[in-house]
Amino acid sequence: MSDIVRADGRATDQLREVTIERGWSAHAEGSVLVSFGGTKVLCTASFTNGVPRWLVGKGKGWVTAEYAMLPRATNTRNDREAVKGKIGGRTHEISRLIGRALRAVIDTKALGENTIVIDCDVLQADGGTRTAAITGAYVALADAIEWGREKGFIAKKSTVLFDSVAAVSVGIIDGEPMLDLAYVEDVRAETDMNVVVTGRGLFVEVQGTAEGAPFDKRELDRLLDLGVAGCATLRDKQAETLA
Amino acid sequence: MSDIVRADGRATDQLREVTIERGWSAHAEGSVLVSFGGTKVLCTASFTNGVPRWLVGKGKGWVTAEYAMLPRATNTRNDREAVKGKIGGRTHEISRLIGRALRAVIDTKALGENTIVIDCDVLQADGGTRTAAITGAYVALADAIEWGREKGFIAKKSTVLFDSVAAVSVGIIDGEPMLDLAYVEDVRAETDMNVVVTGRGLFVEVQGTAEGAPFDKRELDRLLDLGVAGCATLRDKQAETLA
Amino acid sequence: MSDIVRADGRATDQLREVTIERGWSAHAEGSVLVSFGGTKVLCTASFTNGVPRWLVGKGKGWVTAEYAMLPRATNTRNDREAVKGKIGGRTHEISRLIGRALRAVIDTKALGENTIVIDCDVLQADGGTRTAAITGAYVALADAIEWGREKGFIAKKSTVLFDSVAAVSVGIIDGEPMLDLAYVEDVRAETDMNVVVTGRGLFVEVQGTAEGAPFDKRELDRLLDLGVAGCATLRDKQAETLA
Amino acid sequence: MSDIVRADGRATDQLREVTIERGWSAHAEGSVLVSFGGTKVLCTASFTNGVPRWLVGKGKGWVTAEYAMLPRATNTRNDREAVKGKIGGRTHEISRLIGRALRAVIDTKALGENTIVIDCDVLQADGGTRTAAITGAYVALADAIEWGREKGFIAKKSTVLFDSVAAVSVGIIDGEPMLDLAYVEDVRAETDMNVVVTGRGLFVEVQGTAEGAPFDKRELDRLLDLGVAGCATLRDKQAETLA
Amino acid sequence: MSDIVRADGRATDQLREVTIERGWSAHAEGSVLVSFGGTKVLCTASFTNGVPRWLVGKGKGWVTAEYAMLPRATNTRNDREAVKGKIGGRTHEISRLIGRALRAVIDTKALGENTIVIDCDVLQADGGTRTAAITGAYVALADAIEWGREKGFIAKKSTVLFDSVAAVSVGIIDGEPMLDLAYVEDVRAETDMNVVVTGRGLFVEVQGTAEGAPFDKRELDRLLDLGVAGCATLRDKQAETLA
Amino acid sequence: MSDIVRADGRATDQLREVTIERGWSAHAEGSVLVSFGGTKVLCTASFTNGVPRWLVGKGKGWVTAEYAMLPRATNTRNDREAVKGKIGGRTHEISRLIGRALRAVIDTKALGENTIVIDCDVLQADGGTRTAAITGAYVALADAIEWGREKGFIAKKSTVLFDSVAAVSVGIIDGEPMLDLAYVEDVRAETDMNVVVTGRGLFVEVQGTAEGAPFDKRELDRLLDLGVAGCATLRDKQAETLA
Known about the structure:
Chains A, B, C, D, E, F: Its EC number is 2.7.7.56. By secondary structure, the first copy, chain A, is an alpha+beta fold.
């Protein structure tokens, strides 16, 4: 895209090294340790037969997500939210985003009256924790659905996941759009955007924020293109992992 | 834009009736009762000379916002967050959005070591509460800044607000992009988007979510165009009110 | 009562201007914006068919109230109780007072197994917020009961409200008993009393507190007389509004 | 007052057996175990040299109170407020009442920059816990003040307490005014009133509530007379204990 | 054991004066005011027919305990946990210990589907509050069980308590093992241990902590011997009280 | 010790496979991923120059620990404590235990006015999480101290850690003492004990609990011997890792 070389040697349109390690946890019905460079997120999917009371008898399942960060996942230690006795705004916002992203590709009727809770715990943070979480959570979710199918909680031939979903951050730094920002890039970005895109290339979520100067339509378009391309690479990575 | 007539008789690219009543509160340094149709939000700006401890001595001011809804602002009563003892994810998310939107047009150096807290309390909700809140909050903020200038807390000739900011919701209903969704439209929308745009037409925030089917780039573009046009109308309304 | 003229020009036995605006909210089954001078309280009554679990099957209804203040209802901003994560003593105390006042004039058997929650949110405070809240809440309650009757949840000819109820503050300032204290008077009062009186002139609640010097029986009697007269005026105002 | 004999054999104008045991706690600067019949309240006064930050340098002291009940002080067990994580409305209300009652008889200038916290913990409840608490708290407060004087924190000859204070409940049962209600009487009372009266016979607080039918002025007067007489007996008891 | 005489004149292997006053509370099904020297703990046992939902239908009962301290039980005042809005680690830990100790000697099948909650509230603290609480709680528990038997909730001839349980603290001070530490001794102890022992002399719980230097096996043995002997004396005291 | 072979093929006196991976986290001053068989705990040590306010100027440092479990570390998912808004008793108790264990081997004077917070987050649980946490935390602590020394916050030649510390669980199953219980063993154990032992073989903490039948002195001795031997093996493992 441009000749700029980033601090870690990447091209502007290049993802960091992405790894998706399935079956990381011995207990969860689906689990993944996903890394986007120095960002490491443990995603576990917990499958329960049955749904919350308000959904009983509607023939539909429920998928929800919780995001959290270990106190020393970051460069300086943050107090635990459990110790503070309340969950911060950022945590709430990201948990809600992950849940929406996953629900966009799931047929809750086909899931049946089952609940899947995805926990995304950031073990180490280096930018893009929410996008890594979504990307990994999709794989853990897929595994939990297969577990449910094997146990007979989900019909054998149903299509529960009708598409895949991945996410990536993009941003403008010194006027240049860049893909998958590391923490040192994130703090310098004038505009910061997260895009959540399905395997077929459709948008589930577009969240762009001007951190410095507001941005115009042309910049927005360049960021969206970059994000869609990055998500396509992540989709291939997910498919390969699940193969 | 199209020949479709909406439930309340509006064209697809038409705002609801918007009113911005300045000086609603006797106590606040800036205050506005803003309405977008049936949505009524009371925005008050509280000016304090001085900044939070972590900002002292940096020669910069601080602007923050809190959003809340009265229990019976909606069609059925919601329990108070104060009674539940914690603030929900949606409330946190919107408070953060309003704060970011306002900080995008303010020069905190020119504000000096002063703090302005904007409270946006929804008295009646009919869709678009966050966008009405941002649009009204800007006017309350402008008034609080003038108050601070008159009291001598802010330099006489400084430009504290270098642009204005407004926000509006857009969405796709039955395949048709529409501006400023009322509640009955909002629940039917396949895609829901909020755009925050400065007076000069630049984006501060773009938040689009597929509630039903994911959306493609062409739909996204149509929604953005609609939002930018709506915000321009709101900008004129704000300017007229402040004149 | 005396020749003293108060800061706002009132006689010692004179109420501030009182307005009761019915149907303020589009959603609530009963709603009132009540003002006692600069004090403005939004009272909404939410009607639900059914009662809390502990009352089920007893053939009786339930009426309760919650009082709160917007952060900038007062001269300086107060932190939100939702943000602090707990409700203060004063808020609890006033919520309980309003609930008791309303329950004193309602026949819960005639109400049937229905619940009415009255929310009293102070939009602007200038003394006497709890008494304005009770006075307005009665009107909102009456409207919600009529709504329930029209919907068939309450028997057509039953007498649910067997009396009306209103409240006013009285106090002694510089030795002189005065009716309906504004905030600047309230802070100067040696004795502060709230009386809650039914339409028939009977006491529901008498709460007198010596803020400065303790008071004697003669002073108490003068305050009570003043309060009863004030409540009679408010009763007429309520009746007129409901007519 | 009448020929009625109460369940426990008392006349209508008779207090239950009242005991005030000073120096109950080895650690507190003032402490009292007060009983009104089956109601037992442990009142401890904690003296600290210095005042809360907001009072520093104003040459005045601070007196505050906290009221609480052991889980099994009552006939059936109540969950601990510490376990529930919040303090109930009733607890807040009574804590505030006790604090106001004590501050009504103390000269905070004479107290100097010292803080006294009174804890009133109900060990066993049988009606009138708040009035027993006030009556006992006064004695504990007096002892803590003398302790402060001996330690040199309070000037030798100053008059810190310019009056004493006591409290008692009164109520109307079957149309008959009665003094110092036990629990079985309290639940049957049509009207329930607490009066807080100084040693000189002046009112500090009058809180009357119609639990059943609203009450008229004549009933109110009879209750007040009964309360004032009861408080005079308690004042003598306090004086005797402190002698 | 040694010729050392302690500050209060005791031998190293001597308990403080222990009193167990049964039936202290008028309301609880079992209640005891236990004192170990200056430590006074009120233990009440609340009997409820029925069990928590998760135990229903299993034919077993449930015994649990809660420990707390009045704010001025100690030499300086501690803030109430209810006011702080959360329970501290120490409180939790001791509550759990007391519950485990009591459950070790109860046959929950013989108890039947009944629940007993033991509240241990420290009225005055002078070291060893948790061990006094366990020792007293056993007696209150025994009384509550007899109450349940008399009311017909427990089978007439069943053996619900198959052993008794008591507890005592031991510690090493200046190299010398000592029994039942008072507060001034506790703060000086190099090693601090609590032993919970049944009437038959078996261990239920051994909790030893090096406060200063770590300890060796020989010291541990000497402490255990001392603790077992102390618990045997307490067992006799309990039996005598219950006789 | 006996011919019994355990479910996983171990001898009764054999530890599970123990791994201690240093430098697991890129951000923390010391970090270890420790595993005892299927139990995996991430221990991070956060070094701060300076101490909490109450320690300032005393020339001493502060070491504290926090323990937590990821929601799906266990076989079924547990709700997050941050979501529940409070920390459970078990979590508090273990956090306090880890802190005490580490403070037993550290010379806080030599540490100087520095604070080290150790976070022990259980990523996967299979019994013995608290003992694995202590064993790993010691290594993370040692690394953080060396970091502080290199940065010049700690004197070059001082001995901050005067001993090492490790911990292991022991228990009696079917009458047989066993070392380092896995979860399936833990739930079957009649007696459960955790021992915390220094590198020199001295006890820091002994916590034995009868889960089923109470235990006698002979059984206690056998458990202690087993625990001391297990901790000696862990000490060698720690030393090897730090070499």
